Amino acid sequence: MSDEPVISWKAAGIALGLLLTLATFLVKPLGVSTQFVVTDAVVAHEIAPAFAEGNTYLSRYGEKTDWGVGYGWMLVFGMLVGGGLTAMLLREKQPEQDKGSMPQMWVENFGASRMKRFSAAFLGGVLLLFGARLAGGCTSGHMISGISQLAVGSFVFGVVTFAVAILTAKLLYRGW
Has this prediction a pTM greater than 0.70? Predict the structure, then answer.
């Protein structure tokens, strides 16, 4: 395995910046987590309109114009497909020697149960989505789009996200 990255961080940063500029120009700034709320609100407005209007959070979303923003689900779908394709195409570049194995650090701390690993990943994703909505946006919305627009709240979000991630890693992987 080569230690050379497939693409340099500089080229990836420039590509991300160009993609963000194009997305903002063509549609609006990138963000993913809002699409889940919009979908919940649209469904709630259709099934139980009184409940949706009485709910402070859902009443802000779910307008007919929100549903037309299908690009949000295309972005979610694209992330899943892109991540899967990248994992398949770059399988040989992965750091683990045995491609079916889990990272050694995980195994040492939590055991080799695949179900435990998938459950932890799923729970982490649910907590991440909940936190993103609590913060009014996700990492793509705040850290990519928000910081590029110099939004103070997005800078705060970025600092807090990294600080909590570092603390969590230190707690989970004691002594690492």
Answer: no
